[in-house]
Design brief:
This protein folds into four domains: 92 residues, Rossmann fold, CATH 3.40.50.20; 67 residues, Dna Ligase, domain 1, CATH 3.30.1490; 133 residues, ATP-grasp fold, B domain (D-amino Acid Aminotransferase, Chain A, domain 1, 2-Layer Sandwich); 88 residues, Alpha-Beta Complex (Glycinamide Ribonucleotide Synthetase, Chain A, domain 4). It has twelve helices and 22 strands. β9 and β10 form a beta hairpin. Bound molecules: adenosine-5'-diphosphate (ADP) and magnesium ion (MG).
Length: 422
């Protein structure tokens, strides 16, 4: 099989690494790829959102399977263009992808089909939004409708802060991602868990779970980021976790998708809050998370490329998925101004030595430049260690992080020191 990974972050490096290692994979290219994907195959200089160019090159290169990495590719309709060109695509078309790209679409879908989720009001104006605050005495999550790269949600306890945010959004600051529609949602308390399911258009099967760390600083301080670390499997969940989420969330989602004639193909990422009343959906994502993919994929056993192709062709084999019992912890190294600024870095060594065998590194947005690597800034690398349990995997990962930080001490890199501690 000839595969194409679309995107250029550490998630796509992990996807291309795992696909290249699959027995059924003959070649794996990436578009636009990065310094890591270049080790596994060719990087095409085509943007992840350019469906027309991607379709043209897929045809010329006889690509059998395309995997959509980032949500921007899905929302740009890249899946639709590639399917029109006859390529099997792992990732939904634009319409089904609205489960991620419109939070209001997703909320209405959940309400229509009895999927447990936070109580919410949809507002179209400042007046309506301020009125909605009256319904939520214990705080709210204010959510922009569209894709906003992690900047479209503000969670506040305090009515005054909520009012100030809304006044900004409907005033000078504008709503992140644009438009005038927002969600005002009850603030939930509990533990956050990411659960993954694969959907071949008809069936949904579970595909592991992870916990991720969104805030920039230790102790969940500082601004929200794209993600600073993750681990899998989550610790301390009830034994019936998977069957409960299946019964309450995945089954109704699947029934809802079929009732609406929507063929959803790819991974469905359920962001859940584990509350006193069980799991409530915070949001759906239509692709693997970054860095969640980096801690999920090393745990998968078997022919991963074949599995993704079977999903893309509408014939997923539930038996094909096996996860090793080992745990993985991932820690992201970012440039020090991240997320408010992204300073480009030049001349990083292409070969990084992190010692340990069960520790690997995935590159973020970057490009190889001879024996060096240039980085566009932001999230630079993810270090991932594996071991028999989360605690040992965490120690192994941080050994790798320290070795890497010493090698890259000339660069101003930062990372969280408490990933997988709590
Ligand atoms: N109803 C809610 N109650 C409490 N926290 C929330 C709620 N909704 C979202 N959050 C927090 O905000 C983060 C971002 O919200 P999410 O809906 O996942 O949007 P996005 O990932 O698109 O920025 C979540 O990971 C969660 O920590
Ligand atoms: Mg989220």
């Amino acid at each position: 099989m000839r595969a194409l990974i679309i995107g250029g972050g550490a998630r796509e490096d992990a996807l291309s690494w795992r696909i290249a290692a699959s027995p059924s994979c003959e070649a794996v290219s990436s578009a636009p790829g990065n310094a890591g994907t270049a080790e596994h195959g060719e990087n095409w200089p085509i943007a992840a959102t350019d469906g027309v160019q991607l379709a043209r090159r897929c045809t010329a290169e006889r690509i059998d399977l395309a995997v959509l990495g980032p949500e921007t590719a899905i929302a740009a309709g890249v899946g639709d263009r590639l399917r029109e060109a006859g390529v099997a695509v792992f990732g939904p078309n634009r319409s089904a992808g609205r489960l991620e790209s419109s939070k209001i679409f997703a909320k209405r879908f959940m309400q229509r089909h009895g999927v447990p989720t936070a109580r919410a009001t949809i507002a179209h104006s400042l007046d309506g939004a301020l009125r909605a605050l009256e319904d939520h005495a214990d705080g709210v999550a204010i959510k922009a409708d569209g894709l906003a790269a992690g900047k479209g949600v503000v969670v506040v306890r305090d009515r005054e802060l909520a009012t100030a945010t809304l006044t900004q959004w409907y005033g000078p600051a504008h709503i992140p991602g644009g438009g005038s529609d927002i969600l005002i949602e009850e603030r939930l308390e509990g533990r956050e868990i990411s659960l993954f399911a694969l959907s071949d258009g008809e069936r949904l099967i579970p595909f592991g779970a992870a916990c991720d760390y969104k805030r920039a600083g230790d102790g969940d301080s500082g601004p929200n980021t794209g993600g600073m670390g993750a681990y899998s499997p989550p610790r301390g969940l009830p034994e019936n976790f998977e069957s409960l989420v299946f019964e309450r969330v995945l089954d109704p989602v699947q029934r809802g998708l079929s009732a609406e004639g929507e063929r959803y193909v790819g991974v469905l990422y359920c962001g859940l809050m584990w509350t006193r009343n069980g799991p409530l959906v915070i949001e759906f994502n239509a692709r693997f998370g970054d860095p969640e993919a980096q801690v999920l994929l090393p745990r998968i056993e078997g022919d991963f490329a074949q599995l993704l192709l079977s999903v893309a062709q509408g014939r997923v084999d539930p038996e094909a998925v096996t996860f090793s019992s080992e745990a993985c912890v991932g820690v992201v190294l970012a440039t020090s101004g991240y997320p408010s600024s992204a300073t480009p870095l030049h001349g990083l060594p292409r070969r990084l030595d992190i010692g340990g065998e069960r520790c690997r590194v995935f590159w973020g947005s970057s490009s190889p430049n001879g024996e060096a690597v240039d980085v566009s800034g932001g999230r630079v690398l993810t270090v991932v260690g594996s071991d028999v349990d989360v605690e040992r995997a965490r120690l192994r990962t941080y050994e790798g992080v320290h070795a890497l930080a010493a090698q890259l001490s000339g660069y101003d890199l930062t990372y969280r020191t408490d990933i997988a501690v709590t």
